[in-house]
Amino acid sequence: MTNAPHSRIRTDIPHSARIWNFWMGGEDYYEVDRLAGEAGLDAYPEIRTMAVQSRRFLIRAVRYLAAEAGIRQFLDIGTGLPTMQNTHEVAQGIAPESRIVYVDNDPMVLAHARALLTSTSAEGVTTYLEADFNNPEDILAGARHVLNFNKPIAIMFIGVLGHARTYQHMRRIIDTCMDAVPSGSYLALYDGTVDDPGYVTLCENYARTGGVPYNPRTPEEILGCFEGLELVPPGVTPIDRWRVDDPEHKHTSAHGGVARKP
């Protein structure tokens, strides 16, 4: 972790993690992020619902992994800004001995890390790794200092790989990470999809702001990310419908799922 993250924070270019924080009703953003966030709402008003549903998807996925699949190690890549019920809080609430490595390369996320880590359980481990998902080998090397790669690990990409330059690059990142973990490990992933023109317009407008472009995928491409893995029922679905008892049927232009490495 850098010793001076504030020195590298760009306040003149919007950042997706800070815009997401704005959409979720947080306070960790700058004026440039607020303006980009409001422009996004104009193009796709449902983005606030999607932001909330994405966090609920994460919570349900981690609960499943910790409570039903027995996972005790989590590598959360591209974690974003802390918000309600983060990965370590959900996992350690079920299994206090859980070990969590958060990965991000945004200076504002790193600036919040120390305060967040005070809420880890006494039995477990929670730490941050400063790294870029475009360099998965570096992430894996850093995570080996905390996680035991001889035991199952949950690899998590929650709404971040749309920032990968191409779908092929997205698949390479996933495959590199999943190849490094043993049988019994899991992949939890969701990303935005192209099935709503308003959301596609939002992403196109964001790319013009100077922020790192976000490329929504087709639902079929999201499904392809789990190739060779065993999907947990109900498979790849809209995120608001994944393992919920009473689906709210909120419109979210995002698909995701969880799958086990055989």
UniProtKB/TrEMBL annotation:
<dbReference type="GO" id="GO:0032259">
    <property type="term" value="P:methylation"/>
</dbReference>
<protein>
    <submittedName>
        <fullName>SAM-dependent methyltransferase</fullName>
    </submittedName>
</protein>
<dbReference type="Pfam" id="PF04672">
    <property type="entry name" value="Methyltransf_19"/>
</dbReference>
<keyword id="KW-0489">Methyltransferase</keyword>
<dbReference type="GO" id="GO:0008168">
    <property type="term" value="F:methyltransferase activity"/>
</dbReference>
<dbReference type="InterPro" id="IPR029063">
    <property type="entry name" value="SAM-dependent_MTases_sf"/>
</dbReference>
<feature type="compositionally biased region" description="Basic and acidic residues">
    <location>
        <begin position="240"/>
        <end position="251"/>
    </location>
</feature>
<keyword id="KW-0808">Transferase</keyword>
<feature type="region of interest" description="Disordered">
    <location>
        <begin position="240"/>
        <end position="262"/>
    </location>
</feature>
<dbReference type="InterPro" id="IPR006764">
    <property type="entry name" value="SAM_dep_MeTrfase_SAV2177_type"/>
</dbReference>
